[in-house]
Amino acid sequence: MRFPKRPAIGMRAPRLTGANLRTPNLRTIGPGSVSSLLKIALDVAYVLLTLITGVLLLLWVASIFIPIDGLYVTATDGDNGRQIPLTRPLLLFGVGAMTAYFGGFLMILRGLRKIFRTLTLGDPFQPDNVRRLRQIGLILAIVTGGVWVAQGLVAARLAPGVMEPQGVSDLLTPVFSILVVFVLAEVFREGARLRRESELTI
């Protein structure tokens, strides 16, 4: 004689499938995507950097006329310090170098804003983006080389024994970043070529 099975007591654990483990669907390009949020952040940074560069440019012009007799600057690497008389060429060089530094990054942000505008529109593989990425890589190379040369001149001429010039190892990260930008430019160029071929095929 068979007895009926007793019903199971308790809750059955749900099976974990691919649908249960699906991550939130974040859009990377197009309106309302992550690219559009980054575009807003780039716009804000561009405005701030424009203001900083403008102030530095006005300060550089004012440096031609303001009196600097009896003024000194302190060159230090954090441990040692040395006071140097502030001369007109030194003031113009220092303010001009800072203006050029921020101006270079302002041009980089300008190109990035235009690239992210195409990402927001959902059309990144445009020939103009290839040119913009190459310009960004070139400007980044010029800024990196300028900083390296300027710090070497300051360490050798203005503060010998106080400030150390940058070594070759300090260029590894900037050079790697520059190479990545140029590689991305080639990726965009190939994407633009494939899109153009598909349009001709259709």
Walkthrough of the structure:
- The protein has helices at 34-62, 88-120, 127-158, 172-201; strands at residues 72-76, 81-85.
- By secondary structure, it is mainly alpha-helical.
- It has a two-stranded antiparallel ribbon with strand order 1-2.
- Strand 1 (72-76) and strand 2 (81-85) form a beta hairpin.
- Helix 3 packs antiparallel against helix 4 (172-201).
- The longest helix has 33 residues, at 88-120.
- The protein starts with 33 loop residues before the first helix and ends with a helix.
- 9% of the residues are buried.
Structural class given helices, strands, pairing? mainly alpha
Approximately what portion of the residues adopt beta-strand conformation?
under 5%
Distance between the termini: 74 Å
The number of helical runs is: 4
Determine Rg (CA atoms, Å). 28 Å
Main beta-sheet annotation:
2 strands, antiparallel
Q: Care to count the β-strands?
A: 2
Give start-end ranges of low-pLDDT stretches: none
Mean pLDDT: 81
How helical, in percent, are the residues?
55-70%
General shape: elongated
N to C succession of SSEs:
HEEHHH
* Order of the strands making up the biggest sheet: 1-2
